[in-house]
Structure formats: structure tokens, C-alpha cells
Amino acid sequence: MTDLLGNELNFQYELLGPEIALAITGMLVMFADAFRRELKLGRSALPGISVLGLVVALAATLYVGDQTADFARLVQIDNFTTFFRVLFIGVTLVLIIGSHEYIERHVSHIGEFYALLLFSTVGAMFMASARDLLTAYLAIEVLSFSLYVAVSLGKNDPRSGEAALKYVLLGGVASAMLLYGLSMLYGVAGSTQYSEIAASLAAGTDGFELPLLLGLALIIAGVGFKASAVPFHMWTPDAYEGAPMPITAYLSATSKAATFALILRWFSGPLLPAIDDWQWMIAGIAVATMVVGNLVALQQRNIKRLLAYSSIGQVGFMLMAITAISDETGSALLLHLIGYLLTNLAVFMAIIAFYNQTGKEQIVDFRGLAQTNPYLALVITSGLFSLAGMPLLAGFLTKFILFQAVVSEGYTWLVLIALVASTISLYYYLQVIKQMYLYQPEGGETERWRLTPTGYLATGALLVGVVWVGVYATPFYAAADRAIAPLFS
Amino acid sequence: MTESDAPALLAVFLIPLGTALLLMLIPSKERSLIIALTGVSSFAMFVISVVVFVQYDFHGEQFQGVRAWTYMENIGILGEKGIQLKVGVDGIAAAMVLLTGIVIMPGTWVSWKIQDRLKDFFILLFVLTAGVFGTFVMLDLFVWFLFYELALLPMYLLIGVWGSTRKEYGAMKLMIMLLAGSILIFTGIFAIYAEAGLGTFDMPTLYGVDFDSGFQKTYFPMIAVGCGILAALFPFHSWSPDGHAAAPTAVSMLHAGVLMKLGAFGVIRLGFQMMPEGGAFWAPALMTLGITAALYGAVSALRQTDLKLMTGFSSISHMGYVMVGLGTMNVIGWTGAVLQMFAHGIMTALFFLLIGGMYDQAHNRDIPNFSGMARQMPVWTVFFVIAGLASLGLPGMSGFVAEVHIFIGAFRAYPIVGGLAVLTAGITATYLLRMFSQAFFGEFNPRWNHLRDITMAERAGAAVLAVTILFMGLWPSPWVNRISTTIAETIPGVTL
């Protein structure tokens, strides 16, 4: 089949197997929820169906394997896509296993909640695989709309609605800016296809300097919002605090990683010829994000807000890699993303388990946790130390490689700022660790409590992952290296 | 020492790491099991470290027992031999391994009386020990730094949970300052790797690179200050007295005894060996800071009444000597610096062991509150006097051997610095002898009637350390041979 311009189009639907599987699962979940009574479904039916769908999607991803092909010139299937598909499916899988008790108790409209998680995963996967601006934009909106709704689904928590409103209003503005920027880019380059934009910009942009610059600025503002980079980060702490905790985890994991997948595709491909126009903007945003994120985190009292600012700080480190973009910084960034996702999820799963038991989320509430639940304290401590980049944990290795890659590209000054910011971050992580280990529990209550089996499963698997990446990261780095190759070939 | 001895070098850091993992699986109630396990493990570390030191052949290669396992190569930024687990020691590292082995064993013994969360204490203490041993034996820049950070990490909780006097403040100050130092080391390592452009973190390979002179002069001070903070380099020393005063006994022993040497070791390994031209350029500055620290530490120690603070400032003073020795840029001064690292490590560990043994009973460390303690605690006093005499450099003790080398080296390089160093030794003698006369002799204060002499574990630990002091003082050649040949043959820019 050909399109209007006579290009040959490829319609092998099995290339989209994982996305199709997840979309169908999402609809099945909603259907099952609607007829729960008639079908006499138990409590674990909805998460069960979702997990099953995710496993099928994972199998479909591995079935597609490492072939390189495109689907109708809209979606690119290559190692990069496969890498992110596995990552996103994995995150959703862990999230559902680790937090289904929380969802049961603290989320209204459970069926829709699981469906939205699955739909947003589809959006995230398309963000990583799009090869056309409009496909990419639609993918962003699929992810964002699912999350706007999911943020509002907290049960009996007025903060949830407030957070959703803030998120949807600011998100709408950001989407508009992004779309406007993309249309300017289209005006300059004359195409929405990544490869054609790259060719057109490389051929010269004389006479279009201003629209290009404006378009780039708007695009960076748009993706900056999605990645919660300073100064487009205002929604982050409120959304993180108000959203149901699994969604907070999801915002800090998949949503962020998907944005970076998109940024990597854009800034290493279509926008690379215009690097002189955007490099300084990204560098400036990276510095602002590292500094502001880590400094404001110092004053937080709520663990979710603390992690919100800490994740903003982490975005700054990742943006450094975009500033100094090359295949080497790219693969280092992908490795860092693996480490960051594992670590962040480990912390969030532990905090969800803590909330399930205590219903508290202030930092002072963690007082004496080392005595009431030493295992959970160990998971949180390992996670926080890993985020701060301490050895034998994922954060040390992935940050070391990332920073080294950036220095090797000649940006020593950026890394120096990042190192200072990273040291500041240790201070506020230590505040949490201090509560757990240095103080006695509230009211001297030292009775031990246990996690649920799925709580142990999720936190345990993530803890093993964090240590594994920290001790033997070779397979992960090799996978990241293979994934980044198609972008720079 | 040959390649077949490499397992010994692996064992020194794998044993404490493995012990820490095993401890995690033991229920906290099993006190006797914890004590048995840590006892066996620390004894094993001691034996192996002695073997490593004795087996090191000073007629042989620079690095001995070298063995490398590839960790990652030809991925992303990494080229051939990218990151390896590569072990090997030279004469300096062999002495430092021995030092760690000798200090950790008594440190383990005296910690057995801790009541609160004994298991967690030993997990952290052994992780720290693994970090220290790892740093001394690793020959890959990435892994070296990983272990260096690993040695710092447990410090916060060790001081924060089990410490005394202003422990939260001391722990946080120490952590922030040491990690600020890490920023500089990080930057230095990144820059070295990028500048060399070989895609490898292998240290012997990087030693072969002839770095640009401007590069060396820019990055040497970064490494020297970054590592120097851990060695209490003036004026970045202020974490040290607070940290030492707050830390529990075994942690003070390891920290002042071994960890501060890690800093000086880093200055040698990453600074002088990697960037000899930069080292030669900045040596006078290092020497100036060193002699300032030596004088400042000694004068401050004069003014202290808290025993631990006095020892803390005395440590700053003695670590100042190390920097003076390195600054001389001649073999004898350098040999003295490394000897001083060893000698000070042992004597300061003995100091902190004894202070801990007394403080646990008296809950007081103020020198003016004590007098005539020789009558109440005779064994304690004898050991304290041995440590003190070693510290003030009495001939026949380890301190003398080290200081004599440093003084001669300093007189050769800059006579005025040599003079100031001798003056410092005079001040050291003043505050120590005055402390002896106040606390040990004179009329006994009946308030301390309830104090008992130190326990058997403490006596045994103190004996190990005191024997080492006398051994090295009376027969220093095993140390001098190994250290001076390594320096003469392998440190570029250091002359006779």
C-alpha cells in the first residue's frame, strides 16, 4: 500500500503487538469491572487480568525482538523501542503487584484506574517509538490524559482533586505550547517525519532563524513541563502529593522515562542539525533544574514532596546528557534511567507499604522504623542512598558513568555543578534515614510488623535490582548501548 | 609476592563484606554467635594482612600480587580494559593493609560490650572495613573510588546511632565535609579519564600517561584537597575533632587510625603518582599547609581539656607531619610520611581504645577531673603512657622512627620547616606530659573509687597495639625497606 506521496507503507500489525495487547487488556479490565457482580469476580480479578495482559505484551515485545522496521512511516521499531517497551511494561507490572492493596483501599473507580495505567503505558511506548511529530504528540496526549484522570482518583482525599486540576490546567498549557512549537518546526522543515526534518534542517535554515528558534523554545518548554524541568516544574510537588501513591510512583518513573525517550529521539535525530540553537537552552535548564530541585527539597516535610523535588533534581542530571548529546552520553543516560527507575520504584513501593500499615506520610512519621520494621527501613535506606549515588547501589555506578560521559564530551563545569547538587541531595536523604535509625519510635511502640506477601515480593525484587545494577551492571549497560545505536547510525 | 598471592588481596575485602552479609541473616538476639563470627572474621583479616605485608618482596616488582578480572569493557564510554577488578599492592599499600588488619582486630574486641543493636553496629563497621581494605588494594580508578566512598558511607550511622557528645552534629558535619571532598575527587577522576582518552580506568596504564603540565597543575590541587579533607588537611580539618569526639570507640580507632590514612594514601596514589609534575609544583604549598596543621593542631591540643578532643587535635598535628613529609619530595621525607601514617594509625587507635575503656565507666573525659589514676587503673595508665611516649616521639617507639625521617627530609628540603617541625614535637611533649602529670599522678580523686581497670578484651587489644609500637620502634627495617624502595623506584619526581 502507498500513501498520497507514493511512499511504500508497511502494515505489519504484529509490530504493534505489545501496544495492541495492552489496549485490549485495558478495555477488558473496564468491561470486567462493569460486570463484576454478574461475572462473580473476586478482588484480585482486575489486577490479575492486568498482569496477564502485561505478560502477553512482554512476550509480544520479545517476539518482535531486535528487528528494525517501521510501521506505516509513523512508528519505528528498533532496539531503542524494544528497550523502552520492556522498561515500561516492567514498571507497570511491578507497580500493580506492589500496590494492589493500596489501590483497593485508597482509590475510587478501581477498574478505570487499572485501565488508565495500561492506556498510559501504551502512550509511553508510542512516545519511544514515534518517528513522526504527530504520532509523538498523540502519544504524549494518550499518556497525559490517562494520568490527568488517574491523579484525581484518590478516595476521600481533597488534595487529589486539587492536584488533578492543577495538573490538567498546566498540562493543557504545556501541550498547547508544544503543539505550537511543533507547527513552527513543520513550517521551517516542511515535514512531520523525523528523517525529513533532519535532512531539511541540515540543508540550512537561512531566513527561518527566528521561527526555528521560537519553535525550539516552545518545544523545550513543552517537554520540559512533561519532564518537570525547572522552571516548568510547578505542578510536580502538588501532583505528587495529591495523587494516589502508585500514580506518584508512575509519574516519577514511566512518565519521566517516556519523556526522555522522546527527547532522545528528537534531539539526536530531527533537531540535531540545529544543535547550536538549542544546546544552550538545555544547558541552562539542566543547571536550573539541578540546583532548584535539590535546594527546595531541603525544606520538605512530606515524603512525597521530598521525592518530587528529588526527582526534579534527577531530571537535571539527565538533561546534562542531552546537552552533551552523543551515542556515549546517550547510552549512559539509558543506563542511568534503568538505575533511577529501579531505585525510585523501590523507595515508592516501600513508602506505599509503610502507608498501608500506618496511613502516614510525613518524614517525622518514619521515626524508629529501623526497630519496628528493619527490612523496610533497609529498603528505603538503600533506595535513598542509591539516589544520592552511594557505592554498591545502582545510583553510584549509573551516575558515575553518566557524569564521566558528560565530562568526556567536554562539559566539566556542568558536572561540577551536578556533583555539588548531588552532595546536597544526600543531606535531605539523610534526614529521612536519621528519623528511621537515630530515633526511637513514636510513643516507644517497638512492636514489629510485617509486609504483605506481594509487598515483600515487589520491594524485594526492586532491592535486588538496585544492588544488582550497582554490583554487576554489565548486561544493563550493554543493553543500553545496543538500544542507543539506531539513533546515531 | 606473586600472582598466586592475589587471593589474599581479594580476601582482605571479601571477608569483611561477607561477614556483614552473614550478620544480616543472624537474628539480633544471638549475641554469642555475633561475637564468635566477628571474632573469627577479624582474626582472619589480621592474619591475612600480616601475610600480605610479610610476603611483599621489596626486591621485586612495584605492584605485587596483581590480578585483574574484567568487569566492563568496550561498552559506551569504556574501551579495552574499561573497568576491572584489579588487585595489587606496592610497599606503601602493603603497610597500610597491615595497619588496617592490626587496628580492626582490637576494634572488634572492644565493641563486643555494646548493648544496643550490636548486630547492626558490626554490619556497618565491617562494611567500612571492606571499604578501607578495598581502597588500599585496588588498582582500578573506578573500583578504587567505589571502595573509598564505601568506607565513608557507614560513618554517619555509626556515629549518629552509637556515638556520644553531640553525635548528630558531629556525624552530619563529618559526612558533609567528607562528601564535599569527594566532589573534588570525582571531578579529578573524570578529568583524568577524559584527558587520557584511553577508555580505561586501569591505574598502572594511566600512570604511564604523560599528562599535559597545565592539566597536572590544575587537577593536582583538586585531588590533594579532595583526599586531603579526609586526612584532616589544614584548613579542612574541622570535622575531625568533632567527629572523633562523637564517635564510639571502635569507630574512632578505625577512623583516626585508618580512615585518615586513606586520605593521605589518595594524595599519593591519585595525586603524586598520577600527576608528578603537578605534585612537584604544589609540594611547597602542601608542606606549608602541613606544617601549619602540625603547629596549629599541637597548640590547640594544649588548650583542650576533653581527652578525646585533645587526641583529635593531636591527630591533626600528626597528620600535618605526613603532609610535611610528602612536601619534601625526597625519599627520606616521603618514607617518613608513610611510616608516620602507620605509626600514627597504631598509636591513635591505642589512645582511643583506652579513652573509650575509661569513658564507658566514668562518662567523663575532662582531664582536670582526674588525678592519681595510676593508683586506680594501673594497667590502663601503663598503656596510655606507651601511646603517649610514642606520640611525642621517644626513641624506641614507632613515632620516633617516623618523625626522625620526616625531620631529616624537611631539613634537607627547607631547614626552616624542619625547625618548626621540631618545635611542634616540643609542644606535643608539653601537652602530653602535662596531661600525664594531671591525670595519672598526684593525689587520687576519691570520686573515681568505682572505676575498675580496663577489661580483658581491652587489655588484649591494647597489648596488640602496644607490641606493634615497640616492635616498629625497635626494628623498623621491615617497614623502612618496603616503603623506601617503593618510593625510590616508583614515585616520579621524588629524589634522594
Brief descriptors of the model:
heterodimer, A: 489 residues, mainly alpha, two-stranded antiparallel ribbon, 20 helices, B: 496 residues, 2 strands, 3% strand
**Quaternary status:** heterodimer
- Please state how the strands of the largest beta sheet of chain A are arranged side by side: 1-2
| Rg result of chain B | 21 Å
Strand content of chain A: under 5%
Give the fraction of residues assigned to helices of chain A: over 70%
Mean pLDDT rating of chain B: 90
The description of the largest β-sheet of chain A is: 2 strands, antiparallel
> Tell me, what's the shape of chain B?
globular
Please give the alpha-carbon distance between the first and last residues of chain A. Answer: 28 Å
Average predicted local confidence, pLDDT of chain A = 92
How much strand content do the residues of chain B show?
under 5%
Written as H for each helix and E for each strand, in order along the chain, the element string of chain A is HHHEEHHHHHHHHHHHHHHHHH
Low-confidence stretches of chain B: none
Strand order, largest beta sheet of chain B: 1-2
- Helical segment tally of chain A? 20
Query: Based on CA inertia axes, which overall geometry of chain A fits?
Result: globular
The total tally of domains of chain A equals 1
- Determine the fraction of residues in helical runs of chain B and give it as a percent range: over 70%
Q: Which value, in Å, is the CA radius of gyration of chain A? A: 22 Å
Number of helices of chain B: 20
